[in-house]
Amino acid sequence: MSARPKKSFGQHFLHEKRYIERIVSAVSPKPNDFVVEIGPGEGALTLPLLAVAGKLTAIELDTDLIPDLQARAAAVGELSIIHADVLKVDFTALAHRHGVERLRIAGNLPYYISSPILFHCVEHAAAIQDMHFMLQKEVVDRMAAEPGSKVYGRLSVMLQLACRVEPLFTVPPGAFRPPPKVDSAVVRVTPLPVAQLHDADPARVYAVVKAAFAQRRKTLNNALRQLMDSEAIRAADVDPKARAETLAPMDFVRLAKVPTGG
Ligand code: SAM
Protein backbone atom coordinates (compact mmCIF):
# COMPACT_ATOMS: atom_id res chain seq x y z
CA MET A 1 0.00 0.00 0.00
CA SER A 2 2.60 2.55 1.01
CA ALA A 3 4.84 4.06 -1.64
CA ARG A 4 8.61 4.30 -1.34
CA PRO A 5 9.30 7.58 0.50
CA LYS A 6 10.95 10.17 -1.73
CA LYS A 7 14.04 11.82 -0.33
CA SER A 8 13.75 14.78 -2.70
CA PHE A 9 10.36 15.66 -1.18
CA GLY A 10 11.67 15.34 2.39
CA GLN A 11 9.37 12.39 3.02
CA HIS A 12 9.67 10.90 6.51
CA PHE A 13 6.33 9.38 7.37
CA LEU A 14 5.29 9.42 11.00
CA HIS A 15 4.12 6.02 12.21
CA GLU A 16 4.25 6.03 16.02
CA LYS A 17 0.72 6.31 17.26
CA ARG A 18 1.49 8.06 20.53
CA TYR A 19 3.17 10.98 18.77
CA ILE A 20 0.34 11.23 16.25
CA GLU A 21 -2.11 11.38 19.16
CA ARG A 22 -0.07 14.03 20.96
CA ILE A 23 0.02 16.24 17.87
CA VAL A 24 -3.71 15.89 17.25
CA SER A 25 -4.43 16.71 20.86
CA ALA A 26 -2.06 19.73 20.74
CA VAL A 27 -3.94 21.03 17.68
CA SER A 28 -7.29 20.06 19.17
CA PRO A 29 -9.45 21.26 16.24
CA LYS A 30 -12.89 22.70 17.00
CA PRO A 31 -15.95 22.28 14.74
CA ASN A 32 -15.72 25.64 12.95
CA ASP A 33 -11.95 25.75 12.59
CA PHE A 34 -10.51 25.91 9.10
CA VAL A 35 -7.57 23.52 9.39
CA VAL A 36 -4.84 23.41 6.76
CA GLU A 37 -2.25 20.64 6.76
CA ILE A 38 1.07 21.13 5.00
CA GLY A 39 2.43 17.92 3.46
CA PRO A 40 -0.17 15.26 4.35
CA GLY A 41 1.92 12.46 2.78
CA GLU A 42 0.20 9.14 3.42
CA GLY A 43 -2.19 10.71 5.91
CA ALA A 44 -0.61 9.86 9.28
CA LEU A 45 -1.89 13.15 10.70
CA THR A 46 -4.51 13.92 8.06
CA LEU A 47 -6.93 11.13 8.90
CA PRO A 48 -6.89 11.57 12.70
CA LEU A 49 -7.17 15.37 12.32
CA LEU A 50 -10.00 14.89 9.83
CA ALA A 51 -11.77 12.53 12.21
CA VAL A 52 -11.87 15.29 14.84
CA ALA A 53 -12.30 18.34 12.59
CA GLY A 54 -14.80 16.86 10.08
CA LYS A 55 -13.17 18.77 7.24
CA LEU A 56 -9.63 19.67 6.31
CA THR A 57 -7.62 21.26 3.52
CA ALA A 58 -4.23 19.73 2.77
CA ILE A 59 -1.41 21.00 0.56
CA GLU A 60 0.74 18.30 -1.04
CA LEU A 61 3.41 18.59 -3.73
CA ASP A 62 3.79 14.88 -4.54
CA THR A 63 1.05 13.96 -7.05
CA ASP A 64 1.64 10.21 -6.52
CA LEU A 65 0.32 10.36 -2.95
CA ILE A 66 -2.90 12.24 -3.65
CA PRO A 67 -5.35 9.66 -5.14
CA ASP A 68 -4.79 7.10 -2.37
CA LEU A 69 -5.10 9.71 0.38
CA GLN A 70 -8.23 11.19 -1.17
CA ALA A 71 -9.80 7.71 -1.36
CA ARG A 72 -8.94 6.77 2.22
CA ALA A 73 -10.26 10.09 3.56
CA ALA A 74 -13.68 9.66 1.96
CA ALA A 75 -15.02 7.57 4.83
CA VAL A 76 -13.60 9.90 7.48
CA GLY A 77 -14.56 13.44 6.48
CA GLU A 78 -14.38 16.16 3.89
CA LEU A 79 -10.79 16.38 2.64
CA SER A 80 -9.80 18.94 0.05
CA ILE A 81 -6.30 18.48 -1.35
CA ILE A 82 -4.48 21.35 -3.03
CA HIS A 83 -1.74 20.02 -5.29
CA ALA A 84 0.91 22.74 -4.92
CA ASP A 85 4.20 23.84 -3.49
CA VAL A 86 3.22 25.29 -0.11
CA LEU A 87 5.60 28.21 -0.65
CA LYS A 88 3.38 29.31 -3.54
CA VAL A 89 0.13 29.11 -1.58
CA ASP A 90 -1.19 32.51 -0.55
CA PHE A 91 -2.65 31.76 2.90
CA THR A 92 -4.31 35.18 3.13
CA ALA A 93 -6.15 34.61 -0.16
CA LEU A 94 -7.04 31.05 0.89
CA ALA A 95 -8.68 32.35 4.08
CA HIS A 96 -10.58 35.06 2.16
CA ARG A 97 -11.72 32.58 -0.48
CA HIS A 98 -13.30 30.44 2.20
CA GLY A 99 -14.74 33.36 4.15
CA VAL A 100 -12.72 32.60 7.28
CA GLU A 101 -10.81 35.11 9.31
CA ARG A 102 -7.90 32.92 10.28
CA LEU A 103 -6.52 29.52 9.41
CA ARG A 104 -5.17 26.88 11.75
CA ILE A 105 -2.12 25.32 10.14
CA ALA A 106 -0.46 22.03 11.04
CA GLY A 107 2.08 19.69 9.54
CA ASN A 108 5.03 17.40 9.79
CA LEU A 109 7.06 19.65 7.53
CA PRO A 110 9.44 18.67 4.76
CA TYR A 111 12.70 19.53 6.56
CA TYR A 112 14.57 20.66 3.44
CA ILE A 113 12.41 23.80 3.33
CA SER A 114 11.43 24.26 6.96
CA SER A 115 12.85 27.80 7.35
CA PRO A 116 11.32 29.08 4.07
CA ILE A 117 7.95 27.66 5.18
CA LEU A 118 8.24 29.44 8.54
CA PHE A 119 9.12 32.77 6.91
CA HIS A 120 6.26 32.27 4.43
CA CYS A 121 3.81 31.72 7.31
CA VAL A 122 5.11 34.78 9.16
CA GLU A 123 4.36 36.85 6.04
CA HIS A 124 0.75 35.66 6.29
CA ALA A 125 0.59 35.78 10.11
CA ALA A 126 -2.48 38.05 10.12
CA ALA A 127 -4.46 35.28 8.38
CA ILE A 128 -3.29 32.53 10.75
CA GLN A 129 -4.68 31.66 14.19
CA ASP A 130 -1.94 29.19 15.09
CA MET A 131 0.52 26.66 13.70
CA HIS A 132 1.61 23.27 15.00
CA PHE A 133 4.70 21.98 13.25
CA MET A 134 7.03 19.02 13.45
CA LEU A 135 10.52 20.22 12.61
CA GLN A 136 14.14 19.35 13.21
CA LYS A 137 14.69 19.86 16.96
CA GLU A 138 17.64 22.10 16.11
CA VAL A 139 15.30 24.42 14.19
CA VAL A 140 12.80 24.53 17.05
CA ASP A 141 15.68 25.41 19.40
CA ARG A 142 16.64 28.30 17.10
CA MET A 143 13.03 29.49 16.83
CA ALA A 144 12.66 29.68 20.62
CA ALA A 145 16.21 30.84 21.47
CA GLU A 146 16.74 33.87 23.68
CA PRO A 147 19.40 36.57 23.37
CA GLY A 148 22.79 35.29 24.52
CA SER A 149 22.13 31.76 23.33
CA LYS A 150 24.51 30.32 20.73
CA VAL A 151 21.60 29.47 18.46
CA TYR A 152 19.82 32.83 18.75
CA GLY A 153 19.69 34.34 15.26
CA ARG A 154 17.65 35.59 12.33
CA LEU A 155 14.95 32.93 12.70
CA SER A 156 14.53 33.60 16.45
CA VAL A 157 14.19 37.37 16.00
CA MET A 158 11.88 37.37 12.97
CA LEU A 159 9.57 34.73 14.47
CA GLN A 160 9.47 36.19 17.95
CA LEU A 161 8.59 39.67 16.66
CA ALA A 162 5.47 38.24 15.04
CA CYS A 163 4.58 35.16 17.09
CA ARG A 164 4.70 33.36 20.41
CA VAL A 165 6.88 30.26 20.07
CA GLU A 166 6.22 27.27 22.37
CA PRO A 167 8.29 24.09 21.97
CA LEU A 168 5.97 21.22 22.98
CA PHE A 169 7.85 17.87 22.88
CA THR A 170 10.64 16.04 21.11
CA VAL A 171 10.22 13.06 18.79
CA PRO A 172 12.98 10.48 18.15
CA PRO A 173 14.05 9.40 14.63
CA GLY A 174 12.50 5.92 15.13
CA ALA A 175 9.00 7.40 15.04
CA PHE A 176 9.36 7.97 11.27
CA ARG A 177 9.78 5.82 8.16
CA PRO A 178 12.54 6.22 7.07
CA PRO A 179 14.09 7.67 10.24
CA PRO A 180 15.61 11.14 9.70
CA LYS A 181 19.21 11.65 10.83
CA VAL A 182 18.22 14.12 13.53
CA ASP A 183 15.85 14.45 16.47
CA SER A 184 12.59 16.23 15.76
CA ALA A 185 10.33 18.41 17.88
CA VAL A 186 6.79 19.71 17.78
CA VAL A 187 6.28 23.43 18.25
CA ARG A 188 3.23 25.66 18.59
CA VAL A 189 3.55 29.07 16.93
CA THR A 190 0.84 31.63 17.66
CA PRO A 191 0.83 34.93 15.77
CA LEU A 192 0.63 37.92 18.11
CA PRO A 193 -2.47 40.11 17.72
CA VAL A 194 -0.19 42.82 16.35
CA ALA A 195 3.35 42.09 15.25
CA GLN A 196 5.73 44.03 17.48
CA LEU A 197 7.05 46.13 14.62
CA HIS A 198 5.78 49.48 15.93
CA ASP A 199 5.37 50.97 12.46
CA ALA A 200 8.84 49.90 11.36
CA ASP A 201 9.11 48.87 7.73
CA PRO A 202 9.19 45.02 7.81
CA ALA A 203 11.66 44.95 4.90
CA ARG A 204 14.01 47.27 6.79
CA VAL A 205 13.74 45.15 9.96
CA TYR A 206 14.55 42.07 7.90
CA ALA A 207 17.54 43.80 6.27
CA VAL A 208 18.95 44.91 9.63
CA VAL A 209 18.51 41.47 11.23
CA LYS A 210 20.03 39.74 8.21
CA ALA A 211 23.09 42.01 8.13
CA ALA A 212 23.58 41.85 11.90
CA PHE A 213 23.63 38.04 12.00
CA ALA A 214 25.47 37.53 8.71
CA GLN A 215 28.62 38.40 10.64
CA ARG A 216 27.60 37.47 14.14
CA ARG A 217 31.14 37.58 15.57
CA LYS A 218 31.50 41.22 14.54
CA THR A 219 30.34 44.25 16.48
CA LEU A 220 27.16 45.87 15.18
CA ASN A 221 29.22 48.81 14.13
CA ASN A 222 31.01 46.59 11.60
CA ALA A 223 28.17 44.25 10.72
CA LEU A 224 25.73 47.09 9.95
CA ARG A 225 28.27 49.31 8.19
CA GLN A 226 26.39 49.18 4.87
CA LEU A 227 23.11 50.18 6.51
CA MET A 228 23.92 52.74 9.20
CA ASP A 229 26.74 54.41 11.11
CA SER A 230 27.51 54.18 14.81
CA GLU A 231 25.66 57.40 15.54
CA ALA A 232 22.47 55.90 14.11
CA ILE A 233 23.02 52.75 16.18
CA ARG A 234 23.40 54.87 19.31
CA ALA A 235 20.26 56.81 18.40
CA ALA A 236 18.39 53.51 18.65
CA ASP A 237 19.71 53.17 22.19
CA VAL A 238 21.96 50.29 21.17
CA ASP A 239 25.69 50.00 21.87
CA PRO A 240 27.58 49.94 18.53
CA LYS A 241 30.19 47.68 20.15
CA ALA A 242 27.60 45.04 21.05
CA ARG A 243 27.11 41.90 18.95
CA ALA A 244 23.83 40.88 17.34
CA GLU A 245 23.41 37.83 19.56
CA THR A 246 23.08 40.01 22.67
CA LEU A 247 20.22 42.16 21.32
CA ALA A 248 16.54 41.60 22.14
CA PRO A 249 14.15 41.36 19.15
CA MET A 250 12.83 44.87 19.93
CA ASP A 251 16.35 46.35 19.65
CA PHE A 252 16.34 45.40 15.96
CA VAL A 253 13.02 47.17 15.49
CA ARG A 254 14.45 50.36 17.00
CA LEU A 255 17.52 50.07 14.76
CA ALA A 256 15.26 49.69 11.72
CA LYS A 257 13.33 52.82 12.67
CA VAL A 258 16.29 55.17 12.94
CA PRO A 259 16.18 57.55 9.99
CA THR A 260 19.30 57.24 7.88
CA GLY A 261 20.84 59.21 5.07
CA GLY A 262 19.75 62.62 3.73
N1 SAM B 1 2.37 14.32 7.14
C1 SAM B 1 3.02 13.10 6.72
C2 SAM B 1 3.46 12.32 7.94
O1 SAM B 1 3.52 12.92 9.02
O2 SAM B 1 3.74 11.12 7.81
C3 SAM B 1 4.20 13.37 5.79
C4 SAM B 1 5.29 14.26 6.34
S1 SAM B 1 6.72 14.34 5.32
C5 SAM B 1 7.93 14.81 6.54
C6 SAM B 1 6.56 15.87 4.41
C7 SAM B 1 5.46 15.91 3.37
O3 SAM B 1 5.51 17.17 2.69
C8 SAM B 1 5.57 14.87 2.27
O4 SAM B 1 4.33 14.29 2.03
C9 SAM B 1 6.04 15.64 1.04
O5 SAM B 1 5.67 15.06 -0.21
C10 SAM B 1 5.39 16.98 1.28
N2 SAM B 1 6.08 18.11 0.62
C11 SAM B 1 7.40 18.23 0.31
N3 SAM B 1 7.67 19.41 -0.24
C12 SAM B 1 6.49 20.09 -0.27
C13 SAM B 1 6.12 21.39 -0.72
N4 SAM B 1 7.02 22.23 -1.24
N5 SAM B 1 4.81 21.75 -0.64
C14 SAM B 1 3.88 20.90 -0.11
N6 SAM B 1 4.19 19.66 0.35
C15 SAM B 1 5.47 19.26 0.27
Folded structure, characterized:
This protein is of the alpha/beta class. It folds into two domains: 7-196, Rossmann fold, CATH 3.40.50; 202-257, Orthogonal Bundle (Helicase, Ruva Protein, domain 3), CATH 1.10.8. The chain contains eleven helices and nine strands. Helix 3 (66-73) links the parallel strand 3 (55-60) and strand 4. The chain is elongated and about 65 Å long. The mean pLDDT is 95.
CATH homologous superfamily label of the largest domain: Vaccinia Virus protein VP39
Total strand segments: 9
Number of helices: 11
Domain count, please report it.
2
What separation lies between the terminal Cα atoms? 66 Å
Poorly predicted sequence stretches spanning 5 or more consecutive residues:
none
Sequence of secondary-structure elements: EHEHEHEHEHEHHEEEHHHH
What fraction, in percent, of the residue positions are helical? 25-40%
How many whole angstroms does the radius of gyration measure? 20 Å
> What's the CATH class of the largest domain, please?
Alpha Beta
Bound molecules: S-adenosylmethionine
Strand content: 15-25%
Task: Set out the fold topology.
Elements: E1 13-14, H1 17-27, E2 35-38, H2 46-53, E3 55-60, H3 66-73, E4 78-83, H4 91-97, E5 103-108, H5 114-123, E6 128-136, H6 137-144, H7 154-162, E7 163-171, E8 176-177, E9 184-191, H8 202-214, H9 220-223, H10 230-235, H11 249-257
Parallel strand pairs: 2-3, 2-5, 3-4, 5-6
Antiparallel strand pairs: 1-8, 6-9, 7-9
The protein binds S-adenosylmethionine.
The site of S-adenosylmethionine has 23 residues, from β1 and β3.
